[in-house]
């Protein structure tokens, strides 16, 4: 079954404690991206990757890092999380930019 | 700055009604516009519209793209309670590799 898998699905943590949200896709897609979704602000792109070792900033990259060492995986790293990063996060992939994206089920992060 | 605006923000209708959702955009050098439906969790893809495909239809849902006036509409006829969701519009320019989403329209269909 074609899918994008994110882990964890829920996380409550404290300010400053590094965390990683993993994302894996099994569709051999070239393009992967991370979004955060906040009430009234919609989906905003954090980072995206056109292919292995190629990543670029979206609209809201501050406080986040990503890496793309393998085609299927695109982890999101929060080195020093802060409360303003409390949000619902989605990973997505597509075979090319501009094409329909498959979304993971989301990760709800709460930073206290 | 590229921008996508959806209207209305929310809508409550009765089963059987027809609804029209709007998405206007200001994007440099348009490539594609995509509609998604988001229920409890992940957005799911509905339609993609491009310069070569400005009208799409699937069952009770249809969408058109007006490239001259820079907007798209999503029509849902004979609405059902299962249509209750947030509908998202996203635009991709030809330059750059980003997706730009609107804030969505929340649709509630009452039995």
Put the structure in a nutshell.
The complex is a heterodimer of chains A (about 110) and B (about 110). Chain A has about 110 residues and is mostly beta strands.
Walk me through the structure.
The complex is a heterodimer of chains A (112) and B (111). Chain A is mainly β and 112 residues long. In chain A, the strands form 2 sheets. In chain A, strands 2, 4, 5, 6, 9, 10 and 11 form a 7-stranded mixed β-sheet that branches. Chain A has a 4-stranded antiparallel β-sheet with strand order 1-3-8-7, with no helix packed on it. The model of chain A has no long low-confidence stretch (mean pLDDT 95). Chain A has strands at residues 4-7, 10-13, 19-25, 31-38, 42-51, 54-57, 65-66, 76-78, 87-94, 102-103, 107-111. The radius of gyration of chain A is 13 Å and the shape is globular. The termini of chain B are far apart. The relative contact order of chain B is 0.34. Chain B is globular, with a radius of gyration of 14 Å. Chain B contains no helices and 11 strands. Chain B is mainly β and 111 residues long.
Biggest sheet layout of chain B: 6 strands, mixed
Task: Please tally the β strands of chain A and state the result.
Answer: 11
Strands of chain B, count: 11
Q: Could you state the oligomeric state of the chains shown?
A: heterodimer
Q: Structural class, judged by helices and strands of chain B?
A: mainly beta
Note poorly predicted spans of chain B: none
The radius of gyration computed from the alpha-carbon positions of chain A, rounded to a whole number of angstroms, is 13 Å
Would you list the SSEs of chain A in sequence order as H and E? EEEEEEEEEEE
What is the rounded distance between the termini of chain B?
41 Å
Question: Share of helix among residues of chain A?
Answer: under 10%
Q: What structural class do you assign from the helix and strand content of chain A? A: mainly beta
């Amino acid at each position: 079954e074609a899918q994008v898998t994110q882990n964890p699905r829920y996380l409550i943590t404290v300010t400053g404690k590094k965390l990683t949200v993993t994302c894996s896709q099994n569709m051999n897609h070239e393009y992967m991206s991370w979004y955060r979704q906040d009430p009234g602000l919609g989906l905003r792109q954090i980072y995206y990757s056109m292919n292995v070792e190629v990543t670029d900033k979206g609209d809201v990259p501050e406080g986040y890092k990503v890496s793309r060492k393998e085609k299927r995986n695109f982890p999101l790293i929060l080195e020093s999380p802060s409360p303003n990063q409390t949000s619902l996060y989605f990973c997505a992939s597509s075979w090319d930019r501009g094409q329909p994206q498959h979304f993971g089920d989301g990760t709800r992060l709460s930073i206290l | 700055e590229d921008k996508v605006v959806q209207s209305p923000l929310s809508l409550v209708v009765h089963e059987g009604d027809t609804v029209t959702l709007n998405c206007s955009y200001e994007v440099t050098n348009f490539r594609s516009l995509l509609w998604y439906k988001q229920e409890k969790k992940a957005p799911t893809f509905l339609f993609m519209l491009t310069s070569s495909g400005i009208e799409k239809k699937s069952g009770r849902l249809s969408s058109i793209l007006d490239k001259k006036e820079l907007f798209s509409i999503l029509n849902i006829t004979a609405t059902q309670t299962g249509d209750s969701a947030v509908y998202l519009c996203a635009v991709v320019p030809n330059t750059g590799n980003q997706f730009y989403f609107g804030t969505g329209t929340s649709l509630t269909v009452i039995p």
